[in-house]
Specification:
Number of strands: 7
Helix content: 40-55%
Distance between the termini: 38 Å
Shape: globular
Number of helices: 8
Strand order of the largest sheet: 3-2-1-4-5-6-7
Order of helices and strands: EHEHEHEHEHEHHHE
Length: 257
């Protein structure tokens, strides 16, 4: 299927690892022009170098997207480099454990800043250019958006916020020709949980347990949500907006266990 992404200028946050990186590679395969954004210079260099080795076109920006000036700069660099903006993929995010009794205010604020506040500001800054191009936005939510799971309180709330942000902006921008959608992955084999403090032994046990909580009997691969993101960003999804699509191996249909 030709997704007609050739030449589409695409900003991808969280492009240094996990789903964001897999999405950058997918868009490179589809011959999009990519602005890859991540916190770490080494990670973003890896992404950009790989894209260039694939014969793709990309620039990399190592920035802290919780700083509003960074969101402004990312959009400015996209326009300066490529002259337009067609697609915004908000894939940056963190996960921290904690419940209502032991989640610190610092952990709460950090989660909201990265998972929700930075996404809002990236959209805010990108919208004028997306209106010009009749472009679209895809946000990375989680099965934890529509569902509640214990001991990841701040993460749950942040992803519910992503879902509502997606729906609200989709309604507000539809008449201006801009589509907005989100995907809600289940457990995907990335560095998200380990970056959130889960030790290697605990992570291995978590992945094994997740085979029993996902009806398809396995966890996902980063390439799978990346494929869905590419479809939603493409002309093939031209009549889809305001959706939050689960890609979770059936996890969202089960009871908590």
């Amino acid at each position: 299927m030709d997704l007609e992404l050739t030449g589409k200028v695409t900003i991808i946050t969280g492009a240094g690892s996990g789903i964001g990186q897999a999405t950058a590679y997918k868009f490179a395969q589809e011959r999009a022009r990519i602005v890859a954004v991540s916190l770490g210079q080494e990670c973003i260099d890896e992404t950009v170098n790989t894209i260039q080795q694939m014969g793709g076109e990309a620039i990399g920006l190592a920035l802290d997207i919780t700083d509003p000036a960074s969101g402004t700069l990312v959009v400015k660099k996209a326009i300066e480099t490529f002259g337009r903006l067609d697609i915004l993929i908000n894939a940056a995010g963190i996960l921290e454990g904690g419940n209502i009794e032991n989640t610190t205010l610092a952990a709460w604020d950090r989660t909201m800043a990265i998972n929700l506040r930075a996404m809002f500001w990236m959209i805010h800054e990108a919208v004028p250019y997306l209106i010009q191009s009749q472009g679209n936005i895809v946000n990375l939510s989680s099965v934890n958006g529509p569902r509640s799971f214990p001991n990841v309180l701040a993460y749950n709330v942040s992803k519910s916020g992503v879902d509502q942000l997606t729906r609200c902006t989709a309604l507000e921008l539809a008449a201006k020709g801009v589509r907005v959608n989100a995907i809600c992955p289940g457990v995907i084999r990335t560095n998200l949980h380990r970056a959130g403090g889960m030790g290697e032994e605990a992570y291995i046990k978590f992945l094994e347990h997740s085979k029993t909580t996902h009806p398809l009997g396995r966890v996902g691969k980063p390439e799978e949500p990346a494929d869905l993101i590419a479809f939603l960003a493409s002309a093939r999804a031209a009549f889809i907006t305001g959706t939050t699509i689960q890609i979770d191996g059936g996890r969202g249909q089960t009871c908590a266990r």
